Amino acid sequence: MCGIVGYVGPRDCTDVLVSALTKLEYRGYDSAGIAVFENGRIEVAKTKGRLADLTQKMEKEGKPKGHAGIGHTRWATHGEPSDVNSHPHSGRRVTIVHNGIIENYKQLKQFLIENDRNEFLSDTDTEVVAQLLDFYYDGDPIRCIRKTLHELRGSFALGIIFADRPETVYAVRCESPLIVGQGQDEVFIASDVPAIIKYTKNYYLLEQGEIAILKDGSAEFRSLHGRPLKKELLFADWDEDSAEKGGYPHYMLKEIHEQPTAVKTTITPRIEDGLPNLSECGIIFGTLRNLKNIFIVACGTAMHAGMVGKYVIEKLARVSVTVDIASEFRYRDPLLTHDDLIIIISQSGETADSKAVLSLAKSRGAKTLAIVNVKGSSIAREADMVIYTHAGPEIAVASTKAYMVQLAVMYLFAFETALAKGKLEEKECRRLTAALLKMPDVIEKTINKVVDMCQYVSTKLITADSLLYIGRGLDYALSMEGSLKLKEISYIHSESYAAGELKHGTISLITEGMPVIAVATQNTLLEKTVSNIKEVKARGAMTIVICDEEADIDADAVDYMIRIPKINETLMPMVATVPMQLLAYYTSVNKGNDVDKPRNLAKSVTVE
Ligand code: F6R
């Protein structure tokens, strides 16, 4: 998704904007630009390509010099990536940067044309907003922004400057996230906290329809109705290092290595006297006891964490769990009642489809629980109950540590629900909780144990056109994530299949040398999975098996075996996910891909 930044303060504005934008690169982008007040005039520099291209262009053509301005990285939605479609966009007196989508831009463009405003240079919806602001501008920026907001439909955040208001930046948020950072005599706007963390850890979170005015190094706020607002100053408890690569070649590898700490920080405060306790998240034992149906709804990796959650909750708590993709669930008129619990899982807390499901569930009177990583995000604020995962900022587009802590929370939730429903003896619950507490050490041990083997096996995958992941039960749920991880960063087609389903069609795809990655960590299903491994091996597949140290698997059926520590079978997904992450990572590295910013993808999908 696009990234927005803005600055007003004593530093060189262009340097600040470019530096802040580099911290938003993880969101994915195809062009970049800035607009800065230089001696009272707005100077724009923008280009298709990376921030390095923008810097190069400014070195050649002149770098805007000033102390107030706005900047943008664009991920094309309306109009191809090009210099002219890059942000900022301008009307006669207004220049803006924009994140999100304006759904009714065509009607608005028509309205402007009918009113003698046919000055469009680009194909973007953003330029329509710039022209509309200009159309309504009568010298009062707040009145003009409010009037414009009234006309816009969609989800968006805007950074705005007016030619006759030098050294001042305006910002507004409608759905798409936007924060205002407050430093010593300087003030910032950004789509996400890592952009400003180098300069300040203090920030305000703009809410729906709120307007910020950045001037003379500080910020004022107005409501959608123009009333002055007092806002709470928040503190980002990350250091700059935790939003940087810290010596690793890629964020993804750094984040894989951060998993033990992330899990520890997430679970330790929620375990009391050897048992899970989620009461600080608003989760009451009585509510869990009376639960009839649980729906877990999310997108992508977060949905895959929900798949593992389903197996574990149903197994331990004996309550029915339906897992669904948010973009499907929201449009299928789901059957929800007051007795149902909807769990929304989201790293960013801003995913458009997941947000829509939350609103839908609330409107139907169901109880809502959010499992979210980003503090104060929309989903976290709107849900009845929230369990924050404490993974810290996740920068790589491919999610690793956020998935791992989502799994950890699924276990805590399953244990407590099972206890509340009387389906798990306290003694057994203590045993499982103790095993969960050991996971940070086990994950660390697993990373060290499998890293070399994964690096080696990945060299066997890079020439593949297509591959399969297979597994049964929890291993199947897990292989969905393994497959997504591999395809999104290596660009090799891959599918996950329930191992027992292969014979019903898919096995015809197996040809000589086709890689099949089998996850076989569930002892109760091991024999059956081994039969499936043999079936594909007999048809020429190159088999890679992820299993525990003690699993007894016929060596003839396996080309490459990745052995992981053996722990309680129910908790194996938290271990088995590690080699899958590393296989995906090294395959992408070996193919020379942009690991942290895979093509066509964005970190936070704030539009439908
Ligand atoms: C894949 C990945 C995505 C996200 C999905 C939901 O590695 O990260 O599939 O899981 O876009 O995002 P959140 O969790 O922010 O709602």
CATH fold-level assignment of the largest domain: Glutamine Phosphoribosylpyrophosphate, subunit 1, domain 1
What's the CATH architecture name of the largest domain? 4-Layer Sandwich
Whole-number total of structural domains: 3
Approximate strand percentage: 15-25%
Low-confidence stretches: none
Helix coverage percent? 25-40%
Distance between the termini: 12 Å
User: What's the CATH H-level homologous superfamily of the largest domain?
Assistant: Aminohydrolase, N-terminal nucleophile (Ntn) domain
Structure description:
Strand 21, helix 12 and strand 22 (385-388) form a beta-alpha-beta unit. Helix 3 crosses helix 4. The protein folds into three domains: 3-244, Aminohydrolase, N-terminal nucleophile (Ntn) domain (Glutamine Phosphoribosylpyrophosphate, subunit 1, domain 1, 4-Layer Sandwich), CATH 3.60.20.10; 250-437, 3-Layer(aba) Sandwich (Rossmann fold), CATH 3.40.50; 438-593, Glucose-6-phosphate isomerase like protein, domain 1 (Rossmann fold, 3-Layer(aba) Sandwich). The chain has 18 helices and 27 strands. The longest helix has 23 residues, at 439-461. An eight-stranded antiparallel beta sheet has the order 3-2-4-1-10-9-11-15, with helices on one face. A seven-stranded antiparallel beta sheet has the order 5-6-7-8-12-13-14. Strands 19-18-20-21-22 form a five-stranded parallel beta sheet, with helices on both faces. With 608 residues, it is α/β, with parallel strands linked by helices. The N and C termini lie close together (12 Å). The structure holds fructose -6-phosphate. Fructose -6-phosphate (F6R) binds at residues 299-302, 346-348, 351, 354, 398-399, 488, 604-605. Fructose -6-phosphate binds next to helix 9.
